[in-house]
Amino acid sequence: MTPLTPAGVDTAARHCVTSRVTELGVVVDPASHEAPFEQVRAQLEALIRTGRLVPGDHLPTVRALAADLGLAANTVARAVKELEASGLVETRGRAGTVVASGEHAVEAALGVLAARFVAAAREAGVDDDAAVEVVRRAQRNS
After folding, report:
1. What is the Cα–Cα distance from 105 to 114, expressed in whole angstroms?
2. pLDDT tens column, 66-110
3. Mean pLDDT value of segment 37-47
4. Domains of the chain
5. CA dist., res. 102 & res. 64, Å (int)
6. Three-class DSSP labels, 8-35
7. Which helix (H) or strand (E) holds 130?
8. For residue 37, what pLDDT band results from cuts at 50, 70 and 90?
9. Which residues pair with 90 in a beta bridge?
10. Which ranges carry the HTH gntR-type domain (predicted)?
11. CA gap 112, 86 in Å, rounded
Protein backbone atom coordinates (compact mmCIF):
# COMPACT_ATOMS: atom_id res chain seq x y z
CA MET A 1 0.00 0.00 0.00
CA THR A 2 1.24 3.51 -0.84
CA PRO A 3 2.10 5.64 2.22
CA LEU A 4 -0.05 8.74 2.56
CA THR A 5 0.35 11.88 4.63
CA PRO A 6 -2.52 12.90 6.93
CA ALA A 7 -3.69 15.15 4.07
CA GLY A 8 -3.86 12.12 1.75
CA VAL A 9 -0.77 12.98 -0.30
CA ASP A 10 1.15 10.06 -1.84
CA THR A 11 4.62 10.02 -0.25
CA ALA A 12 6.02 6.94 -1.96
CA ALA A 13 9.26 7.65 -3.81
CA ARG A 14 8.82 7.40 -7.56
CA HIS A 15 11.40 5.36 -9.47
CA CYS A 16 12.35 5.77 -13.10
CA VAL A 17 11.89 2.67 -15.25
CA THR A 18 12.99 4.10 -18.58
CA SER A 19 16.01 3.18 -20.69
CA ARG A 20 19.48 3.00 -19.16
CA VAL A 21 18.50 5.37 -16.38
CA THR A 22 16.46 2.44 -14.99
CA GLU A 23 19.63 0.68 -13.98
CA LEU A 24 20.94 3.83 -12.36
CA GLY A 25 18.06 4.47 -9.98
CA VAL A 26 16.65 7.95 -10.59
CA VAL A 27 14.08 8.49 -7.85
CA VAL A 28 11.80 11.41 -6.97
CA ASP A 29 10.72 11.68 -3.36
CA PRO A 30 7.44 13.63 -3.16
CA ALA A 31 7.99 14.18 0.58
CA SER A 32 11.33 15.94 -0.02
CA HIS A 33 11.64 19.67 0.50
CA GLU A 34 13.73 19.77 -2.69
CA ALA A 35 11.74 20.54 -5.84
CA PRO A 36 11.17 17.51 -8.11
CA PHE A 37 13.01 19.11 -11.06
CA GLU A 38 16.02 19.66 -8.79
CA GLN A 39 15.93 16.05 -7.57
CA VAL A 40 15.99 14.83 -11.19
CA ARG A 41 18.66 17.35 -12.22
CA ALA A 42 20.92 16.54 -9.27
CA GLN A 43 20.67 12.78 -9.76
CA LEU A 44 21.37 12.97 -13.49
CA GLU A 45 24.29 15.33 -12.85
CA ALA A 46 25.73 12.91 -10.29
CA LEU A 47 25.37 10.02 -12.74
CA ILE A 48 27.24 12.02 -15.37
CA ARG A 49 29.98 13.30 -13.07
CA THR A 50 30.66 9.85 -11.63
CA GLY A 51 30.90 8.28 -15.08
CA ARG A 52 27.82 6.06 -14.80
CA LEU A 53 26.45 8.01 -17.77
CA VAL A 54 29.19 8.75 -20.28
CA PRO A 55 29.46 11.03 -23.31
CA GLY A 56 27.14 9.85 -26.05
CA ASP A 57 24.73 8.04 -23.72
CA HIS A 58 21.12 8.92 -24.58
CA LEU A 59 18.80 10.16 -21.87
CA PRO A 60 15.18 9.04 -22.03
CA THR A 61 12.83 11.48 -23.71
CA VAL A 62 11.40 14.15 -21.46
CA ARG A 63 7.93 12.67 -21.83
CA ALA A 64 9.05 9.11 -21.06
CA LEU A 65 11.07 10.15 -18.02
CA ALA A 66 8.21 12.33 -16.77
CA ALA A 67 5.71 9.50 -17.20
CA ASP A 68 7.97 7.01 -15.41
CA LEU A 69 8.52 9.36 -12.49
CA GLY A 70 4.91 10.54 -12.32
CA LEU A 71 5.91 14.13 -13.04
CA ALA A 72 4.75 16.78 -15.47
CA ALA A 73 6.79 16.96 -18.68
CA ASN A 74 7.65 20.60 -17.93
CA THR A 75 9.24 19.55 -14.63
CA VAL A 76 11.60 17.11 -16.35
CA ALA A 77 12.19 19.57 -19.22
CA ARG A 78 13.40 22.14 -16.69
CA ALA A 79 15.88 19.64 -15.24
CA VAL A 80 17.19 18.81 -18.72
CA LYS A 81 17.43 22.51 -19.68
CA GLU A 82 19.53 23.18 -16.59
CA LEU A 83 21.81 20.25 -17.39
CA GLU A 84 22.14 21.61 -20.92
CA ALA A 85 22.94 25.10 -19.63
CA SER A 86 25.71 23.65 -17.47
CA GLY A 87 27.18 21.81 -20.48
CA LEU A 88 26.50 18.31 -19.19
CA VAL A 89 24.03 17.29 -21.91
CA GLU A 90 23.28 18.31 -25.49
CA THR A 91 19.85 18.26 -27.07
CA ARG A 92 20.07 17.17 -30.69
CA GLY A 93 16.50 17.73 -31.86
CA ARG A 94 14.96 14.49 -33.06
CA ALA A 95 18.12 12.58 -32.13
CA GLY A 96 17.31 13.27 -28.47
CA THR A 97 19.38 14.37 -25.51
CA VAL A 98 22.82 12.89 -24.97
CA VAL A 99 25.53 13.26 -22.39
CA ALA A 100 27.97 15.86 -23.69
CA SER A 101 31.70 15.43 -23.85
CA GLY A 102 33.78 17.92 -21.92
CA GLU A 103 35.80 18.46 -18.79
CA HIS A 104 33.29 16.51 -16.68
CA ALA A 105 33.90 13.47 -18.89
CA VAL A 106 37.64 13.60 -18.26
CA GLU A 107 37.07 13.98 -14.53
CA ALA A 108 34.63 11.07 -14.52
CA ALA A 109 37.02 8.85 -16.47
CA LEU A 110 39.88 9.70 -14.11
CA GLY A 111 37.61 9.02 -11.15
CA VAL A 112 36.79 5.56 -12.47
CA LEU A 113 40.47 4.82 -13.12
CA ALA A 114 41.42 6.11 -9.66
CA ALA A 115 38.79 3.91 -8.01
CA ARG A 116 40.13 0.88 -9.90
CA PHE A 117 43.69 1.74 -8.86
CA VAL A 118 42.70 2.11 -5.20
CA ALA A 119 40.83 -1.21 -5.28
CA ALA A 120 43.79 -2.97 -6.92
CA ALA A 121 46.28 -1.44 -4.47
CA ARG A 122 44.21 -2.43 -1.44
CA GLU A 123 43.67 -5.93 -2.82
CA ALA A 124 47.45 -6.23 -3.18
CA GLY A 125 47.89 -5.10 0.43
CA VAL A 126 49.42 -1.72 -0.44
CA ASP A 127 48.56 0.97 2.10
CA ASP A 128 47.12 4.29 0.94
CA ASP A 129 50.30 6.32 1.54
CA ALA A 130 52.37 3.90 -0.52
CA ALA A 131 49.75 3.92 -3.29
CA VAL A 132 49.83 7.72 -3.42
CA GLU A 133 53.63 7.57 -3.69
CA VAL A 134 53.29 5.19 -6.65
CA VAL A 135 51.10 7.79 -8.38
CA ARG A 136 53.58 10.59 -7.60
CA ARG A 137 56.44 8.56 -9.07
CA ALA A 138 54.39 7.89 -12.18
CA GLN A 139 53.72 11.64 -12.53
CA ARG A 140 57.42 12.45 -12.21
CA ASN A 141 58.36 9.80 -14.78
CA SER A 142 55.78 10.83 -17.36
Report:
1. 14
2. 998 999 999 999 999 999 999 999 998 888 999 998 877 777 778
3. 95
4. 14-99 (1.10.10.10), 103-141 (no CATH)
5. 26
6. CCECCCEECCCCCHHHHCCEECCCCCCC
7. helix 128-141
8. very high
9. 98
10. 34-102
11. 22
